[in-house]
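Example S7 (structure tokens).
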């Protein structure tokens, strides 16, 4: 019996030692993992084969290059499935462009820690679906148009005469007044008034003196819009009005009509803009600058400062998880003064870099060069 107890005790001690030894060997292997190269995370061209070194450019500690690359590769594999699932989800909700993400060949995904992002001033903005506007600027003048004033007066008078002789037994009189109404209406149309404006004039029943004298009510602006932009202008669009005699904030206005005729010399058309009521003294023929806000519909949009242009492609840096920044080619639909409408390459709620993207681009290109050199060296070997 004693012999049996001794044998069991010895076996237990032997097994425990072997497990402990195996555990230590594992730790030793992980702690003594060979690192072939240490590089600066901000300047990958700076490298060393010894740990504990610092970058001579920025003073940052060099990190194991192999470890950094392995982490990026692991994240790429883990996020590939997640990205595929997101694209499927976005395609159902209408957020995606139903196309694969394309990366530039001469740039690579990089990773920056939070403190390093703060040092170089990285800022991001979310991809949004929103209504975009184009601001069309043009010269204009406060209307002084006695001819239009007279034509409006004649039209209203013709309508009054038509109502008076409506029940007249004399057919010639009725026909004469009808022709007078048609003639005066045609003249208004030739001068640029549309049917909606003519109906408004009839409903009002009086002519505004803003066309011939100074005042603060019912003043109009005549703006000259180039032929290429004229089709975008519609009645009801909002207008900002600036001039030397307008202090502080610009005046507000609204497009009331668009001429159908094009000036053959200037290749422009006349747009009439009604100024909102103001206490300012508005003098006829005074020069102004107008800015018409033209809605362009709802689109996936990002700020203009997020775009990097290679001359061949447009691309952005998309912020991913764990400090990753991925270069991605996009397709532009059009651009405004502040935003760019994206046709392909981005989905709603993704984050794009809007500040320090040139520094990130520099590191991305260096990373791509280093990876390309390493691949070529490994292949030759």
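Recovered sequence:
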């Amino acid at each position: 019996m004693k012999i049996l107890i001794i044998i069991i005790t010895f076996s237990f001690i032997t097994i425990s030692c072997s497990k402990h030894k195996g555990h230590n060997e594992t730790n030793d292997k992980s702690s003594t993992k060979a690192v072939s190269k240490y590089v600066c995370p901000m300047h990958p061209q700076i490298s060393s084969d010894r740990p504990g070194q610092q970058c001579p450019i920025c003073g940052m500690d060099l990190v194991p290059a192999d470890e950094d690359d392995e982490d990026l590769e692991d994240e790429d594999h883990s996020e590939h499935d997640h990205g595929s699932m997101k694209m499927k989800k976005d395609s159902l909700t209408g957020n995606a462009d139903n196309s694969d993400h394309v990366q530039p060949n001469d740039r690579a995904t990089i990773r920056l820690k939070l403190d390093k992002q703060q040092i170089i001033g990285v800022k991001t903005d979310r991809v949004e679906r929103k209504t975009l506007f184009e601001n069309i600027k043009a010269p204009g003048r406060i209307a002084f148009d006695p001819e239009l004033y007279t034509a409006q007066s004649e039209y209203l008078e013709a309508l009054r005469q038509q109502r008076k002789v409506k029940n007249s037994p004399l057919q010639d009189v009725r026909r004469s007044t009808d022709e007078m109404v048609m003639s005066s209406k045609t003249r208004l149309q030739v001068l640029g008034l549309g049917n909606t404006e003519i109906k408004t004039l009839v409903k009002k029943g009086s002519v505004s003196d803003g066309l011939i004298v100074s005042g603060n009510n019912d003043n109009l602006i005549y703006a000259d819009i180039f032929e290429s932009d004229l089709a975008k202008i519609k009645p009801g669009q909002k207008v900002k009005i600036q001039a030397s005699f307008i202090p502080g904030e610009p005046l507000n206005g609204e497009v009331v009509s668009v001429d159908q005729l094009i000036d053959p010399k200037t290749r422009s058309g006349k747009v009439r803009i009604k100024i909102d009521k103001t206490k300012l003294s508005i003098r006829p023929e005074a020069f102004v600058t107008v800015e018409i806000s033209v809605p362009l519909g709802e689109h996936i949009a990002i700020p203009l400062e997020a775009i990097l242009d290679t001359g061949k492609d447009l691309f952005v840096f998309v912020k991913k998880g764990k400090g990753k920044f991925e270069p991605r080619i996009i397709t532009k639909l059009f651009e405004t003064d502040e935003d760019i409408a994206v046709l392909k390459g981005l989905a709603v709620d993704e984050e794009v870099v809007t500040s320090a993207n040139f520094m990130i681009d520099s590191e991305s290109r260096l990373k791509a060069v280093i990876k390309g050199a390493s691949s070529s060296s490994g292949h030759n070997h």
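Notes on this example. The longest strand covers residues 287-303.
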